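Two folds, back to back.
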Amino acid sequence: MRVQKYYVQAVAVLMVCYLTTVLLSACQQKPGKKVDLKNVQVHYRSIRFDRAVFSLDTNQLKATLDQLGNQHPDFAAIYFRELTGFSRTPDEQVFHASLRHFLTFKDYRNLYDSVRIKFPDLKEQDEALKQLFRYVKYYYPKSSYGSVYYFISGLNQWSAVTVDSLVGVGLDMYLGKQYPFYESVQLPFYQIERCEKEYIPVNVCRVIHEDMFPQDAEGKNLLDLMVMKGKQLYFMEHMLPETNEALLIGFTPQQLKWCEQNEGMIWNYFAKQKLLYSTQWQEMLRYVNDGPTSTGMTAESPGNIGSWIGWQIVRQYAEKFPEKTLQEIVADAGNGQQLMERARYKPKAGF
């Protein structure tokens, strides 16, 4: 009877532990899991700034330009000064001449026509961005993102920008990888692969993170940068829970699979080559920035592989400390070494 009683008690204890674990897990906001947004509202509006600009009357340019500036003062100032560069000159006549050229030159008109054909409306993009803003609002209630300006910069490679709480999306950078003129502005092939409309929410999410958490690389080693990028990706997978991992980091499915199969080898390479604590910019940036492949790896490897490893470190850290919220993890002030040690990250070694 004692053995049986002990067995029943043991089962009861195990059941309690199991149920407690399940309940705690349910309470935790796991990466990539959808949350209840029914009470989260954002004041969303989208502006076809591309149409507004190309509707300017070149015969009354100053008057119509002033009207546009009065309607959208914050974004117009950034657009003409930074995104196109037209108003960087103090000479108003030169500025107007540059803008008139932009509005009338056939190559720019053809670019605008390509955007109009590709994006006759933006209902799909608006819905995706509104949902993204709701997730940001859910996790960060004080955020106020909600206004989106769609623009054309003349292939100046502005995919997404933030202007305070305003978001800008450069539609001319999402015309599809078959668009023939991306090569003419010397856009690398691995970036051209991501000139697809599916990347609009991803790129917007990335610039929102950079706006909320400015990334200062000064004085950091490679491991610090890897973890910094890993936090960004951890943030992004929460804000875009229905977006697959390959899209979030800009890998092909094959590249992501290669990383998953060779995680230990990648980590062992960084350790053996004494790269983790390197502060040499040329050594570091090749592993946390875009590129055709990663130096020292096989041809199947993607660029930006250090950011992917940093993502895995942050994920493991989150698993080790389930009581920590997304906000605490993303804002953690610890350096790469500290977070890695607390995560006890050490994948099985490769070669």
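---
second:
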Amino acid sequence: MQKKKLQYHAIFEPAEEGGYNVSFPQFPGCVTFGRTFEEAKKKAQEVLELWLEELASEGKKIPVFKLRPIIDEVQVFLPPKAKISYASNNC
């Protein structure tokens, strides 16, 4: 029996303490961390495979997404009196 491969969106955010936090928009609560990007990517694959295995063992359907989001940056001009905080990535 041949295994089926799927791809899911993973978000890699730099952590304040170094390394990367990883989350999956399609699977809230499924998160991991890696000290380097390569380690974070490997752990992301491992944790998502475990997450999908758990869904399968519970008899739940595994979602498949055909559309991919477009992620880009948007440049803006700040108001002259704007105060900037570099403490976190949150708005």
